Amino acid sequence: MSFSEFIPHMFIPTDRDNVGDLYYRSPLELYAAKVEGYQQLAKLGVALELVRYEDLLVKTAEFARILSSKYGLRRLSEVLTVPQLSTKGDERALEDFRSIYKLEDVVHAVCREDYEFILAVFGAERLRWLGYSDG
Fold it and tell me: The pTM is what?
């Protein structure tokens, strides 16, 4: 299924999605519900770190250092060890994911109709809260 076919497709969550609804009209609605939960936690003052996957892939060691310092977490080693092979059971490695998830590539991968659908379902405010531009 292409991205354009996927985003308006009904989504049935599993237990690991940790949501209450039995289905969503789109995976974007599921993601919106999750972001709303994160926003509610942030308003409560809960220790919360917003980490975008594409940023984590690029700044993995920096992210680990910041978290350990900020929250006083004991590190077993100053050298960050990241498994090179995916735990998804395929042959992809960390560098494969780093080459796939690049924010600057989104403008080429998402057509205008998809972007308009994302804005209509997910919303510009949520995009901005996550640190993305809505323009």
Answer: 0.76
